[in-house]
């Protein structure tokens, strides 16, 4: 109405400097430089080729892959790749003035970080699935992109095919995220699912996961010790809580300490053990932690099995909201990367690059120390089976101000079975498990009770502690 | 790079006519006209007021509510409303040339449809949460908005606070949605959850839902007979399968026929009964149906309880992807509406209105008749307890080419208990339930077997048939 049919009368500067570029684009294709051509990169090439017509319609202009950066020019690649596009020089690609959009799927910090910074500085849109890089340098990269008014998109970085970044950024624009509870590591979730369903030990389930390609060989520690989940939690916290945090601030523990017995007891109390990434916005501070957690069996997260991932958000207005799907794999992640490519390409083609990230505020926030968090706890003690032990355990917790909801004793344990045939030494009482569920308690108080209990001679092994959540 | 620092040299026409408008906007606020101020409208006003600073940063310009259309000027409203904005004249608002964006939260077809069309024709962006209207006229409204290059957004229409529209439109841009399996009616889900968990009858659970405000009084039929879910399935099919379909083409059945016994048997076989909206893309045709369905107890959908909603998508590349949350309520729906307002406002402010919906293709598609679908079935027959009955039932199914996976007999039934004290008539054998689970079978074959069985004099009541899915 206001301007329809009329010539552009007002030539005042506009809010977006990108607008000048727009006038010059016309219908020219968006030229893409792809950094990396492994499984995800191959999936991206395949999806771009298979959906080229539809994507061009949605973007308003064709999307064309101009160069593909690889380390090894001779290696076998997906059939969707035109080998004439291959180069080993990433710098050449990010410096190429005809390339509009750089897709980084190499992973790792070096040289990905420098390449992304260089692409941003040269005014290119960037799509990346690099969670490690984003966990370490996300806020700086986002600020760099905002200053240069280009888009930096990273839907593929967390939860593979799950549209969690988009959901946090767009769907929750008018809400306040109070809590994030997430299964973001498919390796851990697969191992825990197999332990629960088949009674397998951690070691056996890990070997199975390795044989199926779900866990790294020979060193699965990035996954099973929780570091990968911690990286993803940092990225989620950046969007959910506007928080800039170091990975050192995230309490991170893995799943190696979970034994078969823990799955059995959890089941008996009505829980399933999941490896969760948990974030909470407490106003003055945030809570960020990655650890095995007991959650009620009938909760939705408890039923996210195998390699699947899920992120549960609790919004002040919207209430609980969960997204769920494949957390890894070439095609799921590639679908997320290509959805980002479409968004960024469309913005470039329309001269509104940098629009999506506008107004996002990310700043350092205090992370509450673990000793201050309040939770319910599952505690398992392998103890000698003699009168008074349960009372001593309960008493130590009571002295620390921790109140108990349930307590059961069950035996004999693995430890006692191992001890019996050893012979020679003075015969010890058979060992049993005492398992406790506490009411809400501050972790510091629970730890001080455990310190007191550690001095008891009836304790056969260090206690097992897992937190309980009701997501 | 290409144009940096240089003047706009190329004045060729651009792909988007909206661009002229952009030059004139500068930083002027986006003026909003709100049609309707009930629970959702009140929530929208509240969220716009509470998040005004953040939304202005994200949109690039302030978002200002200019007029609010209501029927009753005197009625009590939310405190976020400036009563000076109230008017009873919707036409005046959609005709007001200073209003950029119309938010329709009145519901119903009349006058919402005419007002939205008029707003589109006048070049305004439109946000609506009106599923009834979209089910009936979605493709025409989308085409109208595309022709006029304005945005029509409707995240609030399906699944309240669940970002399913955005997920289908953006996250799945490079994927092919093969299947949609959704719990989209909170009333049905609440009633079924209560029946399962407490053993209540349909009538008792419905009364409870009505007392809690989860079901309409006195007539809950829009929800419990499946019509509301059918409307939402049509909207989902429009985005997932690009399908334009009449509501008459969706097989729709509600939950009134489910008895307590069905929940008990479902549980024994390892299933939960959920009221599902199911869509499938079969290439040459689509399947669209809304009905009670048995799904495995440990599936994620089976654990979506109470008034919560969930939509499970199966993408060819991405695999399963689920979004879950509150399906109704003022604030969850308002969060979705405001996320749309932000999107549409930002596009208007940046001069790229109409960009999001670009390239979406919606056309009539053949809906496969129910008789042709292939499913597994749960069949319950209340029959006289006498030798040979089970054989006759199994035989009739076998004759029709339907093979049986499990069969159990259990008695006595409600019918037999009722029949006994009636006396007078010739004593009949006590009635029992025979419950069958079939292998995959074409529905037409199952129906023909049921026709044959209907002629058997041992049948005490019409058989209960529910489909089984493994989502």
TrEMBL record, chains A, B:
The keyword Cell membrane does not apply. PROSITE patterns: ACT, HOMOSER_DHGENASE. The keyword Oxidoreductase applies. Pathway: Amino-acid biosynthesis; L-threonine biosynthesis; L-threonine from L-aspartate: step 3/5; Amino-acid biosynthesis; L-methionine biosynthesis via de novo pathway; L-homoserine from L-aspartate: step 3/3. It catalyses: L-homoserine + NADP(+) = L-aspartate 4-semialdehyde + NADPH + H(+). Keywords: Amino-acid biosynthesis, Methionine biosynthesis, NADP, Oxidoreductase, Threonine biosynthesis. Pfam families: ACT, Homoserine_dh, NAD_binding_3. L-homoserine binds at residue 216. NADP(+) binds at residues 35-42. Residues 1-21 are annotated as: Disordered. One of its GO terms (molecular function) is homoserine dehydrogenase activity. InterPro entries: ACT-like_dom_sf, ACT_dom, Asp/hSer_DH_NAD-bd, HDH, HDH_cat, HDH_CS, NAD(P)-bd_dom_sf. Residues 378-471 form the ACT domain. NADPH binds at residue 131. PANTHER family: HOMOSERINE DEHYDROGENASE. Belongs to the homoserine dehydrogenase family. This is Homoserine dehydrogenase. It comes from Sorangium cellulosum.
């Amino acid at each position: 109405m206001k301007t329809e049919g009329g010539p552009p009368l007002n030539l005042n500067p506009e809010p977006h400097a990108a607008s000048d570029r727009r006038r010059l684009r016309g219908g020219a294709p968006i030229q893409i430089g792809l950094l990396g051509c492994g499984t995800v990169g191959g999936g991206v090439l395949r999806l771009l080729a298979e959906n080229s017509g539809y994507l061009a319609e949605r973007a308003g202009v064709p999307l064309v892959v101009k160069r593909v950066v690889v380390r090894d020019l001779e290696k076998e690649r997906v059939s969707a790749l035109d080998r004439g596009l291959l180069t080993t020089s990433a710098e050449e690609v990010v410096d190429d003035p005809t390339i509009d959009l750089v897709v980084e799927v190499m992973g790792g910090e070096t040289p990905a970080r420098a390449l992304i910074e260089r692409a941003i500085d040269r005014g290119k849109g960037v799509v990346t699935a690099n969670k490690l890089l984003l966990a370490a340098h996300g806020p700086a990269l986002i600020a760099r992109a905002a200053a240069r008014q280009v888009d930096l998109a990273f839907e593929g970085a967390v939860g593979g095919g799950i549209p969690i970044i988009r959901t946090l950024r767009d769907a929750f624009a008018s809400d306040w995220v109070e809590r994030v509870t997430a299964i973001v590591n498919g390796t851990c979730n697969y191992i825990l699912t197999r332990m629960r369903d088949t009674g397998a030990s951690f070691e056996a389930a890990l070997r199975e996961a390795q044989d199926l390609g779900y866990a790294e060989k020979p060193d699965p520690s990035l996954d099973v010790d929780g570091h990968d989940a911690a990286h993803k939690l940092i990225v989620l916290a950046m969007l959910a809580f506007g928080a800039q945090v170091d990975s050192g601030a995230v309490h991170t523990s893995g799943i190696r300490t979970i034994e078969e017995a823990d799955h059995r007891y959890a089941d008996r109390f009505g829980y399933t053990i999941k490896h969760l990434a948990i974030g909470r916005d407490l106003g003055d501070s945030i809570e960020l932690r990655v650890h095995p957690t007991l959650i009620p069996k009938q909760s939705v997260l408890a039923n996210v099995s195998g390699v699947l991932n899920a992120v549960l958000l609790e919004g002040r207005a919207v209430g609980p909201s969960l997204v769920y799907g494949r957390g890894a794999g070439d095609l799921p992640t590639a679908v997320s990367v290509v959805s980002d490519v479409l968004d960024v390409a469309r913005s470039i083609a329309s001269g509104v690059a940098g629009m999506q990230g506008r107004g996002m505020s990310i700043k350092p926030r205090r992370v509450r120390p673990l000793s201050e968090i309040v939770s319910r706890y599952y505690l398992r003690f392998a103890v000698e089976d003699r009168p008074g032990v349960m009372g001593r355990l309960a008493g130590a917790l009571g002295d620390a101000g921790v109140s108990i909801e349930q307590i059961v004793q069950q035996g004999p344990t693995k430890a006692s079975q191992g001890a019996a045939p050893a012979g020679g030494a003075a015969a010890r009482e058979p060992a049993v498990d005492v398992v406790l569920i506490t009411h809400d308690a501050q972790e510091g108080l629970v730890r001080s009770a455990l310190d007191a209990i550690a001095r008891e001679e009836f304790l056969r092994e260090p206690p097992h502690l897992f937190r309980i959540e009701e997501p």
